[in-house]
Fold these 4 entries.
Entry 1:
Amino acid sequence: MLNAQPINEIHRLYHDEHWSMRKIARHLHLARKTIRKYLDSPAPVPALRQRTSKLDPFKATVAELLEPDPHASAVVIRQRLQPLGYQGGITILRAYISSLRTKLHQLRAFVRMEPGAGERFEIDWGHFGALDYQGDKRKLYAFCLVEGHSRLLYVEFTHRQSFDTFIRCHIHAFQVLGGVARECWYDNLSTAVAEHDGTLIRFNPRFLAFAREYGFYPRACNPGAGWGKGKVERGGVGYVRQNFWPLRHFTDLADVNRQAREWLKDVANQRLHRETRERPCDRFRLDCLRSLPTLTSDYRDTAEALVQKHIRLQFDGNRYCAAPSLVGQRLTVKADASSVTLYHQDREVVRYPRCWRRGLTLGAERFEKELLARRAAAQRSQAHQRLIALLAGLCPTETVEAYLRGLADSDRSLSRQINELLQLVRQYGTEAVAPARAFGADYVANLLRQQLSPREPQPPLQLGDPELNQLVTDPLSLMEYDAFILDA
């Protein structure tokens, strides 16, 4: 048998160069029969020998054993085959069992269900990459709900898949559609299904409470049986991914949901559905849905956070400020897609718009200004209050406050200045200290010493020469020196 190179050369010479088979045979030193054979069949398939396996006589038995329990392990099957004479290994048995399960899964048939009006909602999540908030990326998910009879679609995008977010999306969908169906179908979502053991399903207790509150019956598809809710798989998440998502640009979560609402109104629920041959908005029957409860529970995302000494608490990657009086208290934080609200003992403290960036501080300007105002009054010492009280009878309180603020703005210690001023009051009296307008206790003390202990006038200086004592000098003005100092 020739390898690939001479076979390719035969075809090149015959088809491209148009050589005859005789010429090709002489050129390649091959028989003309060989040339004709490879021209007719460029790559002859080698004959394969039929190999037998030790498992071949037992394949029918393996299929019979798997029929009542398709999930039986290869070890158990081997234990059943060995008394029948099987001497093969576990590896070929595992491979054969795996191929049988694949065929059974691929050939498994199911009955296509067409629910009636108001009978079923199908619900699922879809992942749609992430949104960029000036370098801070947040994952983006789509909550999809399809009404089984009409194929009416509801879509809401979120940045989280938490239980509270999942429930809020339900409530928003029910409110938009105007009611709730008799059944809601889910895949094995952890927010809905706590445990799935064969046909036994244990739902999340909080989710069951929500289902009772809204009066619908939850159902979960079997594992690996996505066709149980194929309408939301294909006509929900898949349709959003193919028809809504391409060639769009978004600024934030609110912009994504705004465009999604417009697309649902103008495109998704107005299209002629290929299976029903009707528009979902025309086929939808509101009168078949169950009514919604009058009062709804609060399903916002909830957390507890401690207000630190810098009047901030941490939530979702950001710092939120609270009133200074709440330092050391644990506040309840409730958040949805639009706002973050802080509560103290069921009392709303402050509400912030939802920020999807990370590492930011919100509300600092408002509450730090309040903190500064509180600290200015709180830091007044008893000496400070006593000085104001002593001087208030002789000077307006505003004047005393302005004087003390001037002292605080200087580079001196305010507490030391106040103590020294009180000492001067005790020494010279309130009436003597009050009119003083010098900033600083040392300057006030100097003025008081000069006023209350004046120096006696000194006699003129007598020189040795009497004629010099009779000289009179021209009057001098110090204004030039004052102007020089003031200009400097």
Note: The mean pLDDT is 83.
Entry 2:
Amino acid sequence: MSADKLTEKTKEWMELLSPYLSEHRTRAHKFSPKASALLVIDMQRCFLERESHAFLPTSKLILGNVERLVAKYRSKSLPIIFTRHAVLPHEDPGSMGRWWADRIRDEDPMSHIVSSLRPMDSETVLRKSKYNAFAGTDLEAKLRRLGVKQLMITGVMTHLCCETTARDAFTRDFDVFVVIDGMTSSSEDLHVSSLKTLVDGFAIPVTTEEALRWLR
């Protein structure tokens, strides 16, 4: 898929999502930049570099959009939190390890965030070992300390870590916004079906261009 094709697909996805988004939700969940944080989920070398067995081809297409959002949040001095999925040497990977018969090891350089998104010293990089970025981490405490009430979610994969984290954020009373062309999955079917579920019950869909306009 090309960048132009992604733009076309984004319009198509938004049309598919519109029946699931009622007007009162849009009114009730108005985006407020100063109350928000950008959550960049698992934009790691293992998912974005071709030589990795876990490489997601469409991750290259969303990378530019995520980079633009990161740059905008930095220019506004708004909080950005990166997550990286990685298992410590003596840590039990649990059901995820049994499910995938694989693990991303903390000591493996491929577990690092891609260089073009290199987090600044002032930005949080949160290691997680579950789909859910809240599980076993201090993510909620960090967000509360920062006064964050809204989350703008990007990253990989839509139907796994992004969706699971978005659902839990909603149950913790954060307003959730998902950047539909700033996240991706291993197939378009999984990406779209996950977005439909999220938009029906948990999150407001937004394109990168919309998010950038809101942040101006």
Note: The chain has one domain: 32-215.
Entry 3:
Amino acid sequence: MTSGKPEARSLDSADSFSLADFMGQSLAIGGSELKKLLRDPTELFSRAVQPVLWLVVFGQVFSRVRGIPTGDIGYLAFMCPGILAQSVLFSAIFYGIAVIWERDLGIVHKLLVSPAYRGALVFGKAISAGFRGLVQTLIIYALAFLMRIEVSLSPGMIAGVLLAVVLGSAIFSTFSLIIACIVKTRERFMGIGQVLTMPLFFASNAIYPLELMPAWLVVFARINPLTYLVDILRGFMIQSGHNTYGFVFDFTVLGLVYAVMVMFASKLYPTLIQ
């Protein structure tokens, strides 16, 4: 007799792991999320408002401040990759609230009693978040073109930006899922999400170099994954190249952060319905 509890497989299941099954299940989850987005694309347009305000208003004002050391580039060029990283963060960090809605509608119950890997359920959400991040990338590049901000249009550089955006979206959407599994209610999630976004953004190198920060804030910035996402984007987007830590190091850090988050999210996802 079955206990009625979720029987979704985890990555450490006794059954043999099938990469083909894992990817197929992940793509199915990601595809269903994309269908919801295509039915109501207004969210994408609303997300475009924030980077426009930051670049057009905030960027134009701070580009007149001479005390911000941006090296041999203008402030708008320095800021543009940071605003892209901010857009990725803000669009992904509230992803968990949709999971809470799905829990209330009974969708999470159906997924967890399926034979799908729990990791595939988490990875599928990340695929959808990555698509949203790619849309934000198009918006930022369009703004850069309209504002005559010099960014690299080399196919290789653009491919690096897209890869970094997908990875960053996956990290912050999975982090959002972890928060949703812990707090379990929309009201608590919204409060915590709002508390987390601003510290992550301002305690990074998105809009100013780390050299301007006090020593205690630099310590936090260096364990903040957004710092390494900005570093990658700045290195790929700015024509002269301004990558501080090196692409290999940045991608390694983000990859390890994502792997740890997927592990925790896969364990916590079933607790959402308890």
Note: The radius of gyration is 19 Å.
Entry 4:
Amino acid sequence: MIFAIITLLSPLYLSQTAKASPFFSNGYFTPNGIEWCEENLPLYKILGEKFFEHHNHSLESRICVSLYDDYYWSYEGPDRVEKLIERSKYYSQLEISESYEESLTGIIDTNPAENKDQTLLQGITKDGETIVQIISSTPKKNQTLEINLVFLDKYNKLKPNVDYSINVTQQGQKILENNNIYSEKGLSTLITRPLNSEEPVSIKVLINQIGIENSSSIGSNQEILEFTVVPEFGVMTIILFGIAISMLILLNAKNKLFLFKLK
């Protein structure tokens, strides 16, 4: 029903999703689409916002710009293209959602509906041999949290065959726990249950073993790395900001009173 409404009420959506292309099919980019984005990056750097006008505000151009700002655009892993294709699916869904909202208001925004709530966190094991990166969405009430884990060596190359556990909590409540995860390529994507609030989320990653058993490359120390995903403007941030303003007002009032007494 939603898609029918979009098709009827949003000309932008209709004009850009009616046909598949060599670059875009089944709701996301093909490898040719990622290559098209790479070829158009210099043009975007020159034209800026006029880049969309140059491409007639196409869906492809808006998704490209979203990808340019995505963490995986500068990612150097062997599966970079696959990761970008997967991210293009996400940005495509954002565009569809925005088109639906625009169909209700009649106000069309041709800029990309890019995701601005990604958090990149990084931890290093004590021996400096393993880097764990987490790319997470921002905690939002009643929404799941997407957690992407990347295991790298000290040269920033993917570490394959990682056996690890993960524990994710919010305000002391468990929202995800898995004690037996195996990442063949050193990459994992996990989804939590819907969050109860926008409070910070604590993530503990326990590395059990790296490498294939009976191999000389095996490594294990069962080391725990801890991360905290904090909302851009969480409750504590607002409270601390309010306290800081109150203190400034109080100090300002005291200074005025002191100067008044001197007179």
Note: Residues 96 and 153 are 38 Å apart (CA to CA).
